[in-house]
């Protein structure tokens, strides 16, 4: 395995152990509100510290962008970390959450690790080296249209200014797809697209740590990731659509009218 990926994997597994230690007794955790419906606990912070320590010990020169502690250091290498993606699920004992670690270098996403500590599924990818689930190579699904497709999404529950545009998108996709899932961890949703479990995915208003690792997984699994206009600005805009190349174009075309504020048909 790529040595940097190896270290990122080790950090993700260590953080996963922290998450599992508290999972059966989440009622004892102190929950702080970061914003409306935006929670953080000592578990998020402890898991993040574990990852940061591991990466810092091996790559002291690299910068870090982590959800709970923000940006540290200045380097062309930036580790982008979500120690617990799916905090609301975690706090409810809803078994869908993950650790997400991505690496960006000079504006390019180089590698990604998404680890589900409950199922012990480890999704990994390095640019040019393919995507894997545990030791098995994974590919995106081949379905070329929304007909029969299972599509993942996330609701913009924090930013209500997105609600109307989002509901237009949901209506359009719902009328054509076989099913839509909102499981509550964008990082895992993206890993599932890479593994072909979901045919496609879209969400608006994500943060870089929600999507950096998942975007590498999908690209390396043969899929396309873009912002909602089909452009490359997904990491900064937080608006993302992903699928195999044909379905990706279909999704971009279907989502565009709502993005532009036109009513869904
Ligand atoms: C959230 C999850 C969720 C997505 C939100 C994210 P968090 O991350 O990925 O699926 O819809 O936009 O903020 O807060 O649980 O790390
Ligand atoms: Ca997140
Ligand atoms: Ca988080």
Automatic annotation (TrEMBL):
InterPro entries: IMPase (IPR033942), Inositol_monoP_metal-BS (IPR020583), Inositol_monophosphatase-like (IPR000760), Inositol_monophosphatase_CS (IPR020550), Inositol_monophosphatase_SuhB (IPR022337). Its cofactor is Mg(2+). Transmembrane segments: none annotated. Keywords: Hydrolase, Magnesium, Metal-binding, Transcription, Transcription antitermination, Transcription regulation. Gene3D superfamilies: 3.40.190.80, Fructose-1,6-Bisphosphatase, subunit A, domain 1. Its EC number is 3.1.3.25. The keyword Metal-binding applies. CDD domains: IMPase. It catalyses: a myo-inositol phosphate + H2O = myo-inositol + phosphate. PANTHER family: INOSITOL MONOPHOSPHATASE, INOSITOL-1-MONOPHOSPHATASE-RELATED. This is Inositol-1-monophosphatase.
């Amino acid at each position: 395995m790529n040595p940097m990926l190896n270290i990122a994997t080790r950090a993700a597994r260590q953080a996963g152990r922290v998450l599992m230690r508290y999972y059966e007794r989440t009622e004892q955790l102190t929950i702080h509100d970061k914003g409306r419906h935006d929670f953080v606990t000592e578990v998020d912070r402890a898991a993040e510290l574990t990852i940061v320590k591991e990466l810092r010990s091996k790559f002291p020169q690299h910068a870090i962008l982590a959800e709970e502690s923000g940006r540290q250091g200045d380097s062309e290498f930036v580790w982008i970390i979500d120690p617990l993606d799916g905090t609301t699920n975690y706090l409810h004992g809803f078994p869908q959450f993950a650790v997400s670690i991505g690496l960006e270098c000079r504006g390019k996403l180089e590698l990604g690790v998404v680890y589900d500590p409950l199922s012990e599924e480890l999704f990994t990818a390095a640019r040019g080296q393919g995507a894997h689930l545990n030791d098995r190579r994974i590919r995106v699904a081949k379905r070329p249209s929304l007909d029969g497709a299972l599509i993942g999404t996330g609701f913009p529950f924090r930013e209500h200014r997105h609600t109307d545009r989002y509901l237009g998108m949901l209506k359009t996709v719902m009328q054509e797809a076989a099913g839509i899932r909102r499981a509550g961890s964008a990082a895992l949703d993206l890993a599932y697209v890479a593994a072909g479990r979901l045919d496609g995915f879209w969400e608006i208003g994500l943060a870089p740590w929600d999507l950096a690792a998942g975007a590498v997984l999908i690209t390396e699994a043969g899929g396309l990731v873009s912002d909602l206009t089909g452009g490359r600005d997904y990491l900064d805009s937080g608006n993302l659509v992903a699928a195999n190349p044909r379905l990706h174009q279909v999704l971009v075309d279907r989502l565009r009218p709502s993005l532009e504020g036109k009513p869904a048909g």
